[in-house]
Amino acid sequence: MKVLMINGSPRKESNTQIGLDEMRKIFEAEGIDVECIAVGNKVVRGCIACGGCAKKGKCVFDGDLVNEIAPKFEEADGLVVASPVYYASANGTLVSLLDRLFFSTPFDKTMKVGAAVACARRGGITATWDELNKYFGIAGMPIASGQYWNGIHGRLPGESKQDAEGLVQMRTTARNMAFLMKSIALGREEFGLPEREQGEMTNFIR
Ligand SMILES: Cc1cc2nc3c(=O)[nH]c(=O)nc-3n(C[C@H](O)[C@H](O)[C@H](O)COP(=O)(O)O)c2cc1C
Hints:
By secondary structure, the protein is of the alpha/beta class. 41% of the residues lie in helices and 17% in strands.
């Protein structure tokens, strides 16, 4: 069983990473492998809506992480996406990566468990948490939650180690995510995945 973590922060001693490391301890205690990829100091371009991925089965742009992360995501049973809060949103590099990763990958994501982590000095955690959960919500991915909207506070690098409440949230979310992943693995064996209908594309003018 494997969890893939993606951290949007560009910083060394990232406060967001401290939250992820707290989650990692729980996953490892639960016998779940973890791979964590920091994307924030990489150049990741946005989606250009060319539609090329529908033909190629991958993003048309190679070499900026999206196509490297895609097979790791396919293999994983769970995905944690974590972001520093920038202007009450997820940071731009992470959003560019997630747009392209979710849009370009043709594999079924149903019942992979998702969890979001947001980290801020003071404000915007819940807006960012909502934003990140949207990727899971459109992909048939159950969302692991905790005892609060999963966030951790800190401004200067390393400060979030002092946020005892945030660290509890990280551990709780990780425990709930591990439980969901294991339960889904059992359920898949017993019942199989739910039936999936062919998508129907309509819009509001026809
Ligand atoms: C461009 C930018 C915008 C930010 N916007 C917010 C914000 O809206 N709300 C907030 O509380 N902190 C904001 N911050 C502070 C960061 O969220 C905070 O320093 C956090 O610890 C960064 O996490 P990291 O160490 O993992 O990168 C902002 C920081 C930057 C660089």
